[in-house]
Design brief:
It contains 8 helices and 13 strands. By secondary structure, the chain is an alpha/beta fold. The chain is globular.
Length: about 240
């Protein structure tokens, strides 16, 4: 399985840290943020990785190179105009379209068993499996609602759904997606993958939610960045892939 790390964002919520340092390589503990994701993917045998770039992208390329120091292969998808999460995935279609692939946001710190996630996706089928977690801040993260079979029925309360007994979670920023998603993303323009999901749900495509256990942190805000570095210094975070 191949993977894509979404790393083209401007890092607006992390300014002024990201004024001169792109978000993927800001220091977290003793290594760049994105290195945690590379090590997670490598642990589960995912060694073909594409990273999309925009803001200060040349610094990311210089810092990571071709991935050989970690025993993986990194290629880059450079966006002259930022394309958003969906548009970025669409631009990488030629690299990703041969089978199901994993996409992970570049501004999270996460510890998840990807083998279990992949097994869940293969067993349930569907066009995608979104990793979900308990939502302690719905105003910030929005809601993803599932039925009793953990099939995703609504995202941000769309589309209208006749199923009444729904459970609410938040999207953890990692998903396994089938190539059919490319039919739902326009080419060459800014587009959110969440909008693609909402359209798919409105057309009765099957998307499942995998409820995660284990560590998850949003490192994309100043508050989150300071907290994660403090927790690492205090030895409060143990990641299975380190």
């Amino acid at each position: 399985m191949k993977a894509m790390i979404l790393a083209a964002g401007m890092g607006t919520r992390l300014r002024p840290i990201t004024n001169n340092t792109p978000k993927p390589i800001i220091p977290v503990g003793d290594r760049p943020l994105i290195e945690y994701l590379l090590l997670l993917l490598k642990k589960y045998g995912i060694k073909d990785i594409i990273i999309n770039l925009h803001h200060l992208g040349e610094k990311v390329e210089k810092g990571l190179g071709d991935g050989s120091r970690w025993g993986i292969r990194i290629i880059y998808s450079r966006e002259e105009i930022i394309l958003g999460t969906g548009g970025g995935i669409k631009k990488a279609q030629a690299f990703l379209s041969d089978s199901a692939f994993l996409v992970i946001n570049g501004d999270i710190l996460i510890d998840i068993n990807i083998n279990n996630l992949l097994e869940f996706h293969q067993r349930h089928g569907g066009i995608a499996t979104m990793v979900l977690r308990e939502n302690d801040n719905p105003d910030l993260y929005g809601s993803v609602k599932t039925d009793k079979d953990v099939r995703v029925r609504q995202i941000l309360d769309r589309p209208a759904c006749p199923v009444m007994d729904l459970s609410s979670y938040m999207f953890a920023g990692i998903h396994i997606i089938e190539p059919k998603i490319f039919q739902y993303i326009p080419e060459g323009q800014y587009y959110s993958v969440i909008d693609a999901y909402i359209e798919m749900l409105s057309k009765n495509e099957v998307v499942y939610g995998h409820i995660m256990k284990g560590h998850w942190s949003d490192v994309g805000t100043i508050e989150g960045y300071r907290k994660i570095n403090d927790d690492i210094r205090r030895g409060l975070i143990k990641l299975s892939y380190l």
